[in-house]
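Here is the promised in-class demo. Please do not try to memorize the tokens; focus on the logic of going from shape to residues.
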């Protein structure tokens, strides 16, 4: 089946970016002049996704506002007669068809996916964690292509330094290739027990049975459900689960250092900003205390 729907998780608290995220959703923090979540949407649209389902929580109203028409800023810009600025303001609403579901309490990413069940039942879908900003070629498009080859659930992976392995979910390959068939996924293993150095990042293509596996997966602390356990359930049931590498550059914007690096990297890729930013950053680095 073609993959036309993406679930983007936008219900998190953003505690690692407080106090900025006390009143501004972490997904709406700007990367240069676009909110973080718009990069995820554009990446999905580049992969042929036509319908985006946002899983939101209280206090995330600005996500809906950003991808809607008829707001105050739009009216003011239009009244000024600035066509180019008007196009920038109205562009997000036309990227895809947008749907919103509400997660009442933080009960894990698996539970968040189940909140969107009525909109994704019976078809494969993309799952995106927008904290992972991936610049360059669309990671989602590469995963969708890998799904076309394998027909099974796909997780995006990248090799990480050994000392960082305990921070990630790590995959256990069952063979060679790309996509790589998997025999297990291990959440944040001790270094000595890690089956590989291939870490899962926030992009997935999931086959329809994942919803039932999430339902059956055990709940952790606070009643939270995770996608990793559901993928383990698919493997145990003999269903294909694969890992795929990608060609873009990933930034963990959920942490201050990763967020700052993402802003600089995105600016350097811009023809209208790259030269100025490169010169300014070089100047700062030359004068920075060592």
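The designed amino acids, position by position:
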């Amino acid at each position: 089946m073609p993959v036309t729907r993406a679930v983007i998780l936008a219900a998190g608290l953003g505690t690692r970016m407080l106090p900025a995220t006390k009143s501004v959703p972490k997904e709406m923090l700007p990367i240069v002049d676009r909110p973080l979540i718009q990069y995820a949407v554009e990446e999905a649209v580049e992969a042929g996704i036509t319908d985006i389902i946002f899983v939101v929580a209280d206090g995330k109203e600005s996500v809906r506002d950003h991808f809607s028409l008829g707001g105050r800023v739009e009216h003011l810009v239009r009244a000024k007669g600035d066509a180019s600025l008007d196009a920038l303001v109205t562009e997000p609403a036309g990227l895809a068809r947008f749907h919103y579901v509400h997660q009442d309490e933080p009960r894990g990413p698996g539970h968040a996916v189940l909140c969107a069940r009525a909109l994704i039942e019976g078809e494969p879908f993309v799952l995106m964690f927008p904290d992972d900003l991936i610049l360059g070629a669309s990671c989602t498009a590469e995963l969708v292509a890998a799904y076309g080859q394998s027909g099974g659930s796909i997780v995006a992976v990248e090799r990480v330094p050994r000392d960082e392995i305990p921070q990630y979910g790590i995959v256990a390959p069952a063979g060679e290739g790309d996509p790589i068939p998997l025999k297990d996924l291990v959440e944040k293993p001790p270094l000595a027990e890690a089956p590989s150095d291939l870490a899962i990042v926030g992009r997935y293509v999931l086959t329809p049975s994942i919803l039932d596996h999430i339902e059956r997966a055990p709940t952790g602390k606070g009643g939270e459900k995770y996608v990793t356990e559901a993928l383990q359930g698919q493997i145990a049931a003999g269903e294909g689960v694969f890992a795929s590498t990608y060609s873009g550059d990933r930034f963990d914007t959920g942490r201050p250092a990763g967020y700052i690096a993402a802003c600089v990297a995105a600016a350097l890729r811009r023809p209208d900003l790259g030269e100025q930013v490169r010169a300014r950053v070089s100047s700062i680095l030359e004068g920075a205390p060592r």
